[in-house]
């Protein structure tokens, strides 16, 4: 029997109340939160003050950053990166997803994941849904079975039975220098840039913990499954 310690999820939703973005979060992403609540203890964080981020037991905790702004990120979230990096170094998991994808700018993304942040060599590349000025353009995500976190099964991702492909969707595409960080690569053959790899879902070890980014903006059932697996939550029987 495969046993897991119950996870504690810090669910970050810090955008202004009553905004269109907040309504979209509630309409489109409540199912993700519901999936997490079925399998873990969830604490919602609506303020980025210091007392909100006192973490207990990082090795059994996950920070899930779903949204922190309306048309741009809350600047406090970027300032919080050093604390989230320390949390990961101590064994915690930090995941970015949901409405982060459509509102984060290239500069903000690089501030979090570049040299001044987690220093993972990840770069904002493009919104695939805007390719060729078409909002209907979609790409397919393909599982990278030699991703470090999948191949060594450190998060039980093989046990989670991740889908081999993500049905065509509109993600924020990320350029990654290290192919072992790519959990789902983008199969669209656009913007090939030398040694860099294009991805829709990326994840890498940081210290004793992990950091991941899921660029999905469509919230498909497959993505809910993938995000729950990245948080190392037990499968629902």
Automatic annotation (TrEMBL):
By what name is this protein known?
Uncharacterized protein
